[in-house]
Amino acid sequence: MHHALTAAAAGFGSGLALIVAIGAQNAFVLRQGVRRDAVLAVVGICALSDAALIALGVGGVGAVVVAWPGAVRAVGLVGGAFLLCYGALAARRVLRPGPGLRTEGEAAGSRRRAVLTCLAMTWLNPHVYLDTVFLLGSLAADRGALRWTFGLGAALASLCWFTALGFGARLLGRFLARPAAWRVLDGLVAVTMLALGATLMAGS
Fold first, then answer.
1. Which pTM does this prediction carry?
2. Cβ contacts of 94-99, under 8 Å, gap ≥ 24
3. How confident is the model at residue 105 (pLDDT cuts 50, 70, 90)?
4. Distance CA 181, CA 170 (A)
5. Which of 11, 25, 62, 72 has the most CB atoms around its CB within 10 Å?
6. Could you give the dihedral angle defined by the CA atoms of residues 65, 152, 45 and 189, in that order, rounded to the nearest 10 degrees?
7. Contact of 98 with 178, CB cutoff 8 Å
8. What helix, strand, coil percent values describe the chain, rounded to 5?
9. Which residues contact 180 (CB under 8 A, 6 or more apart)?
10. Are 12 and 154 in contact (CB under 8 A)?
11. Do residues 57 and 140 lie in contact, with contact meaning Cβ atoms separated by under 8 Å?
12. Taking Cα atoms as reference points, which of 129, 142, 102, 118 lies closest to residue 44?
């Protein structure tokens, strides 16, 4: 039981560290939350999609690792390089901030449009596959028989994050409209991504 809880906690932490990166998908969920437009549908799509992709990663990448141990090194190098680049871009946004989250004057849009946009940002985004299928899959493989427990923890982190993001965004509307707020968020993202990327590169 102790080992299972440890694996689940590790999966939760790893999943959260990757999911909180401010990207197109998270910005879209924030906008929907602030505008209170199809929030439940958007949160559900993001969380269920992540759970499906994490399951693919835990099962598929785990099998590849058993057959070819060099896959761990390859995924670690690719994932580490990506995270370092992503962290560098986030750090650049801290130094050269853009506008805050703009919601004024935007039409609420239909539920169908929100759902289709969310599906596109999730399933057509290569970063999502790298984070869930490859990166979390390779981390789960290190857990051996507890890899599915690790994956469950990562899926739970996704559910918690998107629920908090979508339904909590309305409370942060004014705060998120400030460019300084995004500088703080991007600063946290930069530190997290650079640290995780360096760890993966060093371990590979």
1. 0.67
2. 94/183, 94/186, 94/187, 94/190, 97/179, 97/180, 97/182, 97/183, 97/186, 98/179, 98/182, 99/179
3. very low
4. 15
5. 11
6. -80
7. no
8. 85, 0, 15
9. 97
10. yes
11. yes
12. 118
Q: And the tokens for 61?
A: 């990448």
**CB burial of residue 102 (10 Å; 0-12, 13-18, 19+):** exposed
> Contact, 36 vs 170, CB < 8 A?
yes
d(CA 187, CA 87): 9
Question: Does the pLDDT value for residue 90 go beyond 80?
Answer: no
**10 Å Cβ neighbour count for 190?**
21
Q: How far is CA 168 from CA 51, 142, 181, in A?
A: 21, 34, 15
What does the chain come to in residues?
Answer: 204
With residue 11 as reference, give the H or E element that holds it.
helix 2-19
pLDDT per residue over 187-202, tens digit each? 877 787 788 778 767 7
- Count Cβ neighbours within 10 Å for each residue of 109-146 and write b for 16 or more, e otherwise: eeeeebeebbeebbeeeeebebbbbbbbbbbbbebeeb
Contacts of 43 (CB under 8 A, 6+ apart): 29, 162, 163, 165, 166, 167
Q: Tokens for 11?
A: 């999966």
Q: Which of 161, 186, 192, 187 is nearest to 30 (CA)?
A: 161
